[in-house]
């Protein structure tokens, strides 16, 4: 008995708007269709789709969200699974009008299937390569993720793996993500690994201040500084952060990856209109709308744009500017950024009948 309930798709303006997705966890981004393929491959696990997605009006504690990932990971434990889910996810973002995607995922090893972390990364890269060969209208890059729960040694090993692939993947691997349950571990223990990553040329996209208790950790991580911040929900003083944190983020001009539905359904933000998007947007700080986990939170990037526009009263012009500005916040090489900017200009002209 699978739940096939989908949220209402966004209006065509938001679906057709060219978009940049910079914060998408691979295994949190599986559609109902992909999940059903996985469930039918592994019926013995007795997993139902209702266990892997949070629908409209439903909410979960952050802890419950992390339990969901454990269920999903059981379904994805072979190279074949990873290839399929990565290709599906890339195809779905392309179908939603995403022209540039930075996918992130935590390399896992599964002894019972012979999956190694290196094979895991190779398979995601292969999926990206195949999508390019199939001429999907989307450029994809990959961020190797460090799960903070696994501690400093694994973090260092993951950085070494990411570094190897940065050199050998034809510029597909461009950076490192720090994610995982924010209530576990402390960023100070991971600082040496993050510094090593930065020094070898990997860009850093770090989940920061996702929960209220991370002020000290955020101060520390900002010394790196990161190239982008994931969520940053509790950075500003109105929610218990501090002016000094805000000042540092602004001085260093570190863009924020903001995921409205994820934060509302995960209950770190009480409602859409209270989302910290407004605080940073009003400051003129670079904000990039993202999905985080489009499968788990039953959303799409077009829906996130529509939600932001309707909640905060953004004009269509402002929505175009928001999506265009995301290009500059990406880790794409300069020539690709330029190509994307030109694409936006011609698509906007086309959309307005010029
Ligand atoms: P994967 O890395 O592709 O397996 O994607 C799922 C993983 O992403 C989870 O196990 C977490 O480590 C991480 N993740 C997904 N969403 C969040 C979030 O909102 N905060 C922190 N970590 C997250
Ligand atoms: Zn995230």
From TrEMBL:
<comment type="similarity">
    <text>Belongs to the metallo-dependent hydrolases superfamily. Adenosine and AMP deaminases family.</text>
</comment>
<keyword id="KW-0546">Nucleotide metabolism</keyword>
<dbReference type="GO" id="GO:0046872">
    <property type="term" value="F:metal ion binding"/>
</dbReference>
<protein>
    <recommendedName>
        <fullName>Adenosine deaminase domain-containing protein</fullName>
    </recommendedName>
</protein>
<dbReference type="GO" id="GO:0046103">
    <property type="term" value="P:inosine biosynthetic process"/>
</dbReference>
<keyword id="KW-0479">Metal-binding</keyword>
<keyword id="KW-0862">Zinc</keyword>
<comment type="subunit">
    <text>Monomer.</text>
</comment>
<dbReference type="GO" id="GO:0006154">
    <property type="term" value="P:adenosine catabolic process"/>
</dbReference>
<dbReference type="InterPro" id="IPR006330">
    <property type="entry name" value="Ado/ade_deaminase"/>
</dbReference>
<dbReference type="GO" id="GO:0004000">
    <property type="term" value="F:adenosine deaminase activity"/>
</dbReference>
<feature type="domain" description="Adenosine deaminase">
    <location>
        <begin position="18"/>
        <end position="343"/>
    </location>
</feature>
<dbReference type="InterPro" id="IPR032466">
    <property type="entry name" value="Metal_Hydrolase"/>
</dbReference>
<dbReference type="InterPro" id="IPR001365">
    <property type="entry name" value="A_deaminase_dom"/>
</dbReference>
<keyword id="KW-0378">Hydrolase</keyword>
<dbReference type="GO" id="GO:0009117">
    <property type="term" value="P:nucleotide metabolic process"/>
</dbReference>
<dbReference type="Pfam" id="PF00962">
    <property type="entry name" value="A_deaminase"/>
</dbReference>
């Amino acid at each position: 008995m699978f739940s096939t309930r989908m949220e209402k798709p966004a209006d065509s303006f938001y679906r057709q708007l060219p978009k940049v997705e910079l914060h998408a966890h691979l295994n949190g981004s599986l559609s109902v269709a992909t999940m059903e393929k996985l469930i039918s491959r592994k019926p013995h696990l007795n997993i139902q789709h209702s266990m892997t997605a949070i629908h409209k009006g439903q909410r979960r504690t952050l802890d419950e969200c992390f339990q969901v990932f454990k269920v999903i990971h059981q379904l994805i434990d072979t190279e074949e699974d990873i290839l399929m889910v990565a290709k599906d996810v890339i195809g779905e973002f392309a179908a939603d009008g995403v022209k540039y995607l930075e996918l992130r995922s935590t390399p896992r090893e599964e002894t019972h299937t012979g999956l190694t972390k290196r094979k895991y990364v190779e398979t995601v890269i292969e999926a990206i390569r195949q999508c390019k060969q199939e001429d999907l209208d989307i450029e994809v890059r990959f961020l190797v993720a460090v799960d903070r729960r696994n501690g400093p040694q694994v973090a260092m090993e993951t950085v070494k793996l990411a570094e190897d692939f940065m050199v050998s993947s034809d510029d597909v691997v461009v950076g490192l993500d720090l994610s995982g349950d924010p209530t576990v571990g402390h960023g100070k223990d991971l600082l040496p690994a993050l510094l090593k990553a930065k020094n070898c040329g990997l860009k850093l996209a770090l989940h920061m201040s996702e929960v209220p208790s991370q002020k000290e950790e955020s101060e520390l991580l900002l010394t790196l500084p990161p190239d982008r911040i994931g969520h940053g929900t509790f950075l500003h003083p109105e929610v218990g952060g501090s002016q000094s944190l805000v000042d540092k983020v602004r001085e260093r001009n570190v863009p924020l990856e903001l995921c409205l539905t994820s934060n509302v359904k995960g209950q770190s933000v009480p409602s859409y209109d209270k989302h910290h998007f407004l605080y940073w947007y009003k400051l003129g700080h670079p904000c990039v709308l993202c999905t985080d986990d489009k499968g788990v939170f039953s959303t799409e990037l077009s829906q996130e744009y529509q939600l932001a526009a309707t909640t905060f009263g953004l004009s269509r012009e402002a929505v175009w500017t928001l999506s265009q500005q995301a290009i500059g916040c990406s880790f794409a090489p300069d020539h690709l950024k330029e190509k994307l900017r030109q694409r936006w200009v011609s698509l906007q002209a086309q959309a307005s009948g010029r």
